[in-house]
Amino acid sequence: MNEPVLSATKKTRKRTFLGLLLLAVLLLLIGSGVYLVFFTRDPYIAFSRGVVTVLVTAVLVLTALFLCGLLAIVITIMHERTFRGLGWLMEKTILLFYPVVLQVGRFLQITQDKIQRSFIEVNNQLVRSRPLKVSSRELLLLLPHCLQDSGCPYNITRNIDNCRRCGGCQVSEIVSMSGSRGVKAEMVTGGTMARQAIEEHAPQAVVALACERDLSSGVLDSFPLPVMGVVNDRPQGPCLNTRVDLGALEEAFDHFLNKQRPA
Ligand code: SF4
After folding, report:
1. Options 1.10.3470, 3.40.50, 3.30.2010, 2.10.240; which CATH number does 136-257 get?
2. What integer pLDDT is reported at residue 10 of this predicted model?
3. Ligand 1, atom 8, residue with closest C-alpha
4. CA-CA distance, 56 to 54, in Å (whole number)?
5. Does the Cβ of 170 fall within 6 Å of ligand 1?
6. Ligand 1 within 6 A of 185 CB?
7. What is the pTM (predicted TM-score) of this model?
């Protein structure tokens, strides 16, 4: 039987992801440094020593650059503002090291959910640091199909307006929240459909509700499009009658639409 997964968003620490990211970068930095110092001295590799030295030095320099990327992430989060020119470096650092972070976390027996939840928190904080405000037409809300009550007979995946707003699940409240703000909402069944919705609507920003795994892969796929993620609760286990913190959703809407340009 599946374990119920209750909301832990509030308890999530950004430091889980950032600590693992630091560890991953340092491991690569120290590893390539040690390799450079010891292995390239081996007389048996005299033939290829030059090539190896150049390659490892390149890795060393790149890793030092990614260490700067990590520092940029921490400074951005601390100061709650984006510094010009650092966006690219932060994005590449996360994209390249995210799989390594998951592996290091696995080795340290930290659950993938915990790391991904922490990553979503880091991402949300980076999004909040950007001075971006959009009109309601430029914002897209993506919902997972598991928010819909499993007994609901209406097909709202292709058209969320098919929801009769009976109150049987949170979709009715979410549709009201997005509708009152003029924000387009799409219910999607997975990453492919989410990508299609983003291509179709070409939003300037996205608010996405989903589980940790789908949210993190969606955020990474969508870089540099700003995606504010809200992790869902799974009181009945994964992918069944999930729920979401409506306060967190409202906060995400407010962040993007506050001081909005006219729609
Ligand atoms: S609010 Fe009612 S009609 Fe709408 S998706 Fe939920 S159960 Fe179906």
Report:
1. 3.40.50
2. 46
3. 152
4. 6
5. no
6. no
7. 0.85
